[in-house]
User: Fold these one by one.
Assistant:
Number 1:
Amino acid sequence: MNLTEKIEKDYISAYKAKDAVRLAVLRLLKTAVKHRLVALCRPGGSLSDDELLDVFVKEAKQRQDSIEQYGAAGREDLADRERAELAVLHEYLPKPLTPEEIAVLVETAIKELSACSAKDMGKVISAVMAGRKGCVDGKILAETVKARLA
């Protein structure tokens, strides 16, 4: 079962179970997928699992940013709602790598690329991110590479 079919199946289950949060998130995902299809000039088509993963990562990042902003503004009620939505989104994302795992990947990439200065930071980040879409937190990765190459 691909991700599109899983979303559709979960959407129907959430609707029948009257799970408002899950239903709202899945509706939002379906809408985001349609917007992405229109942006790619493929209305009525479908997205590959990699393209869907891009949509999921973008939506999760938006939720994370909203949580931070609501928290800073003292709106914990809205931040809690975003956290609940983010928890549902995490079910569709691959398991994130820990900072320790990211550090190991960074060390490996630095050795493979013979990186030695901050100018090589982009190359190292690209090498680590390749093939690990949705698994690597960009902020942690950038901080790790910067600390290692500085």
Number 2:
Amino acid sequence: MQKDPYLILGLKDDATQQQVEDAYRALRKEYEEKCFAEGEEGARAARKLTELDQAYNDCLEDLQDRVKISDFGNVLKHVEALIKEGKLDDAQDALDKVEPRDGEWHYMQAQIYYRRNWHTESKNQLEIALALEPNNEKFQRTYKRIVDMLSGANSGAAQGGAAGQQQQARGGYADTRGGYTRPANGGSSSLDACCNTCSTLICCDCCCECMGGDLIPCC
């Protein structure tokens, strides 16, 4: 079983890079002096130097990974702030540079898409986030809200379309969008238009007769 590199250097797991470097230099100096000794003592010191070199490199790798994780969180906070400010292009540019693309990354992508009114694309990104982190309650709540919203919009559009078709069958309505139906011909049916035309002619005939004329001889 591989030894803990921090223990080999005589440190705890939360040691800083400076502590790792100081411990490594001190121990290496100690065993470098012993490695020239004769017999087993020199051989043991040489093995210890190899072990110290490996432990030192492992500790540095671990410390770099910690920095990446910390930077990842900071970048996502920056992206979130840009989204709230409405700077969606800047938020997308920053997000595109982030690795790894885990559940939180796809959640942020969903937020950008939502703010652009690309609701279906936003839903797809949330589905990816949930596939990566199925127990994340934040992802679950957000996904439920957008699914409910899309279901409501589709239902409203369907109802509006049915209403428009019924009105068109009666000859009264023409254009339907998002549940709102706009009447054709100013809201009048063909029968109403005919009645309005007759009323206008009769009115004109009366005016002509008052002035000595006759627009409609039979009346």
Number 3:
Amino acid sequence: MAGLVRSAQSGLGVQDARVVLRRPGSLAPVQGVSDATGAYYIAELPPGPYLVSAYLDQVPIGEQTVTIEHDKITGLDFAVGATPDMPIDLNAPSMAPLWRYKPPGADPVTGAIEGTVSDTRRERLPGAVISIIRDGEVAAEQTFTDDHGRFQVAGLSPGSYTVSAYYSIVMRAQMEVRRNRVRVGGGEVVVVPLWLETDTW
């Protein structure tokens, strides 16, 4: 299992957040701690359902139920400091409201789009092709999701963009998901989580 713990205001990673996984019928929980970038990784988990809770200085910051599958990375991100009038779900399907933040020291002239690509079971999809096209233009900025299903494209001029993810499995199918009219401002990072319906393959 892998994910990021981030500040809701700045988008920066939060260090020393504790992520606790509890499996039904198991007495001892499994724990991981976020590093200086806010990333955590918990390996070699037996497949099955888990209750995942995150804490910072013993204060709860989120809780969700996930199902771990063999040889797949389940992703779950958390936002610290979100308020009731500013709900943030970093794991929501791609049609949910987007989260925007302005990191300290960001270039005020350009922006960035980042996010994750997952299937509907929250399994992250590494190697997905990400294509970002400014509305009215033809040329695309392209990148791939990393081993944890994450991507980022920086240096974007302010404007409206279409963000697409393509994912294929040899001899099976190729899937695409798209988010239109993603507005990017100068000095701003827009987080775009994308989900693919791989269960239909």
Number 4:
Amino acid sequence: MRRAVLATERYFAEHHAKLVNVEALARRLGVAYSHFRRAFLAHTGFPAWKYVVHLRLTQARRFLVGSDATLDDIAARLGFSSGFHFSAAFKQRYGVYPARWRRKMQAGGGRANPPA
């Protein structure tokens, strides 16, 4: 099971912007989905889908600091369905909207990595 979880982490890191069917991925790795879900959560601290969102938001922080891309552009690059959904996920995770976080970082008024 550990091999499957580690393979999934690698897959997500390489494909976090794509829509992933976790049940099909578990099947492809030769493990039962129900066991896989529990093992993945125990290993990462996240359900599989939230892990993907975590990776997307981590990458979003890099885009926000390192580029002048619009929120819609960042959302599209990272697999969010819209800038609105990206902003809502960012706010839910970090307590501040991405545009405000970006302005704060550009002004030098905060850490580049909000609490996870």
